[in-house]
Amino acid sequence: MKPWVIHNKQIQLEILELIARDPLASVRACVAEKRKLGAQLFDALSRDEDEGVRARIAWNQKAPVEILQRLAGDQAELVRQAAAARLARLTKE
After folding, report:
1. Which end of the chain is less packed: N or C, by CB atoms within 10 Å?
2. Rounded CA separation 22/64 (Å)
3. What is the pLDDT of residues 62-93, one digit of tens each?
4. Exposed e or buried b for every residue in 64-81, given b needs 16+ CB within 10 A?
5. Domain that holds residue 53
6. Residues 69, 84: contact at Cβ < 8 Å?
7. What is the pTM of this model?
8. Cα R_g (the chain), whole angstroms
């Protein structure tokens, strides 16, 4: 049920903040894909214990450059690659 709520385009940031605390990484990963995340939520999800969640933040089009720069040094290769790719795209724009 939560993924359906997350994909609602009109979902409020406060609800996303609650769902982002879900014990399931798959649910947190769905939240990480949303473009309307606030700075605190970007930061919290970029520090998630699950590399898949962090990678989704790195691929998020609205992820702040500071977050991407930090994720470029992540312990997980998947996250590092995603962050490096996003940073490379940003420099081309």
Report:
1. C
2. 23
3. 999 999 999 999 999 999 999 999 999 998 86
4. eeebbebbbebeeeebbe
5. 2-92
6. no
7. 0.91
8. 13
DSSP the chain: -HHHHHT-TT--HHHHHHHTT-S-HHHHHHHHT-S---HHHHHHHHT-SSHHHHHHHHH-TT--HHHHHHHTT-SSHHHHHHHHHHHHHHHH-
Which one-letter amino acid corresponds to residue 93?
E
Provide the token pair at 27: 């649910």
Tokens for 26, please give them: 């798959």
Q: How many domains does the chain divide into?
A: 1
